[in-house]
Amino acid sequence: MKDAAKDKVYNVLFLCTGNSARSVMAEVLLNREGRGRFRAFSAGSHPTGQVHTYTLDLLRGLNFRTEGLRSKSWDEFARPGAPELDFVFTVCDNAAGEVCPVWPGQPMTAHWGFPDPAAFVGSEAEKRAFFAEVFRMISRRISIFVSLPIASLDRLSLQKRLDALGASNKAEA
Question: Which of 10, 28, 100, 119 registers the highest number of CB atoms within 10 A of its CB?
Answer without folding.
Answer: 28
